[in-house]
Automatic annotation (TrEMBL):
Native organism: Actinomadura chibensis
Residue ranges of domain UspA in the record: 1-136, 150-274
Gene3D superfamilies tied to this protein: HUPs
Protein name, UniProt field: Universal stress protein
Pfam families: Usp
Family, as annotated: Belongs to the universal stress protein A family.
């Protein structure tokens, strides 16, 4: 059974833009698309009168059906299913991520405890998802209009291999080039340190050229702060890809300041790929 691409649907413009990117990814990778709407308000616990609950469920089902028709209009023949979940949105998306290839969310939603409001639901999903998560802002271009470049933020840790491979494979599927960016956050101080940083970046990319000969890879070592360098590079990218460590026994990923900055300020969709220590 093929792993689905999950996209959170809440009716906001940001969620629709996330749907554009999720559907594009599903088509290129020949995977099914699953549209998910989660809400605790749908629980039949007597809080809402039965008639009102039925209307609310019908309203949310119509929302999902509209999103499904939109995806099929863009990509006829795409395998699209919908799922209404009686959980809060963040927990619903994290649960779906256990069997997913990718989860896509909008960076902002309708607001309130039910919306895909980044900083609450979006941030929870980014920190706890069990697969790569793509965060798409409303200002992100349509996938077909995105620049043919993917930016990878590299620190030089051994566990980064997983998200480097993910990003280069995605570049191959898009016919894009890769910019591998290693930002050290300060002046190099000496030519010797610059040589060391260049070597670390090259080591992080070892073997990539042989496995993906169709993907041009540019390497850049920057003395800028990582968050500033990556946000700036995202202006000319289709995606900016970063990793987040999932340590043993930890309930979620350690996003860190750089990843928070990327998720909030990138000019293109940002992808966080879980890595393991």
């Amino acid at each position: 059974m093929l792993s689905p691409i999950i996209v959170g649907i809440d009716g906001s413009a940001h969620a629709w833009r996330a749907l554009d990117w999720a559907a594009d990814y599903a088509v290129r990778h020949r995977l099914p698309l699953r549209l998910v709407h989660g809400s605790r308000a749908l629980v039949a616990d007597g809080t809402i009168p039965d008639d009102a609950l039925r209307r609310l469920i019908a309203e949310r089902e119509d929302l999902l059906a509209e999103a499904r028709q939109y995806a099929l209009k863009l990509h006829p023949g795409l395998d699209v299913e919908t799922r209404l979940v009686t959980k809060d949105p963040g927990r619903a998306l994290v649960a779906e991520s256990a069997e997913a290839e990718l989860v896509a969310v909008g960076s902002r939603g309708l607001g309130g405890f039910e919306g895909l409001l980044f900083g609450s639901v979006g941030l929870y999903t980014a920190a706890h998802a069990l697969c790569p998560i793509m965060v798409v802002s409303r200002s992100a271009p349509h996938p077909a209009d995105a620049p043919a470049e993917i930016v990878i933020g590299i620190e030089g840790r051994p566990e980064e291999r997983a998200f480097v491979e993910w990003a280069v494979e995605e570049a191959s599927s898009r016919g894009a080039r890769v910019l591998a960016l290693h930002a050290v956050g300060g002046e190099f101080g000496s030519p010797h340190r610059r040589v060391i940083e260049d070597m670390e970046l090259s080591e992080a990319l070892a073997g990539i050229g042989e496995r993906y000969p169709d993907v041009p890879v540019d390497q850049l070592v920057s003395d800028r702060a990582p968050s500033h360098a990556l946000v700036e590079a995202s202006k000319n990218a289709a995606l900016v890809v970063v990793g987040a460590r999932r340590g043993r026994g930890l309930p979620g990923m350690a996003l860190g300041r750089v990843n928070h900055a990327i998720l909030h300020h990138a000019h293109c969709p940002a992808v966080v790929v879980p890595t393991h220590e």
